[in-house]
């Protein structure tokens, strides 16, 4: 989106707003998933997380 804004003379404001909304939603979702992994894996079980275990903890 940054490249498009720089290269175009006029940029659609709706697309900029939409990309910011998508970015905010994705960041919030990743923070929720990371918090769930940390809470389940590190605090409750006290062990290091492997990718398979993280996937299991996300699904719980």
What is the structure about, briefly put?
By secondary structure, the protein is an all-alpha fold.
Which structural traits does this protein have?
60 residues; mainly alpha; 3 helices
Any overview of this molecule?
The mean pLDDT is 85. This protein has three helices and no strands. The chain is 80% helix and 0% strand. The chain starts with a helix and ends with a helix. It has helices at 2-7, 13-45, 51-59. With 60 residues, the protein is an all-alpha fold.
SS content category: mainly alpha
Number of helices: 3
Q: Helices and strands, in N-to-C order?
A: HHH
> What's the pLDDT, averaged over the residues?
85
Query: Rg to the nearest angstrom?
Result: 18 Å
* Outline type: rod-shaped
Helix content: over 70%
Number of strands: 0
Task: Give the low-pLDDT segments.
Answer: none
Give the CA-CA distance, first to last residue.
Answer: 35 Å
Biggest β-sheet strands, sense, barrel: none
Q: Give the tally of structural domains.
A: 1
Strand residue percentage: under 5%
Topology overview:
Layout: H1 2-7, H2 13-45, H3 51-59
Helix pairs in contact: 2-3
